[in-house]
Amino acid sequence: MTQLFFLYIWNMRAIILSLLLISCLQLSSQELMTVDYTFKIKNLPSTEKVQFAYYLMGKTYIRKEFDATADGVIHYQADSIHRGVYLLNFKEKNAFFEILINEPKFTISVDYNNLFTTAQTTDYKENKPFFEFLQYISDQSQLSDSLQKNSTL
């Protein structure tokens, strides 16, 4: 039973990641944008460094590093940024989460203590299903862990 469950999750993951990849390929045009992004990070420790980074040819490159602010709000503006998959990296926590960049302005809210399940945006339609997928994967992972603990295999 648990093997079927894992196979189902793996297949769903593959389908959704394939759709995201196709989406990202469409986003990867060489067009540059002027952007204005706001990241609201609840419970951000004052010692944390937040990096806004991107992927290129299998490597991660830091676009800008921010010191934590008292209110947890990070504002990023740039005159030339490519569309694609970016990430917010939290150095002290050694964790990150990805975002899709295809619009010039948006706000994302997230809780530092639970990055994957609390990421939200109300004004960016492409990241909303992506964040819902991350929540789904987190829920399924917890369910899988619970089933493994209760399994007699």
Please summarize what this structure is.
The chain has 153 residues and is an alpha+beta fold. Helix content is 35%, strand content 39%. It contains three helices and seven strands, in the order αβββββββαα.
SS-based class: alpha+beta
Largest sheet: 4 strands, antiparallel
* Mean pLDDT metric: 81
Number of helices: 3
Helix proportion of residues, in percent? 25-40%
Q: What strand line-up does the widest sheet have?
A: 3-2-5-6
Instruction: Give the total of beta strands.
Output: 7
Q: Which sequence of SSEs, written as H and E, runs from N to C?
A: HEEEEEEEHH
Distance between the termini: 11 Å
Radius of gyration: 17 Å
β content, as a range?
A: 35-45%
Please mark out the parts with pLDDT under 50 across 5 or more consecutive residues, or reply none. none
Shape, principal axes of CA atoms: globular
Protein model, in words:
The chain is an alpha+beta fold and 153 residues long. Helices cover 35% and strands 39% of the residues. The chain is built from three helices and seven strands, in the order H-E-E-E-E-E-E-E-H-H. The chain has helices at 2-27, 115-118, 127-150; strands at 32-42, 49-56, 59-67, 73-82, 84-90, 95-101, 105-111. The strands form two sheets. Strands 3-2-5-6 form a four-stranded antiparallel β-sheet. It has a three-stranded mixed β-sheet with strand order 4-1-7. Helix 1 (2-27) packs antiparallel against helix 3 (127-150). The chain is globular. It starts with a helix and ends with a helix. The mean pLDDT is 81.
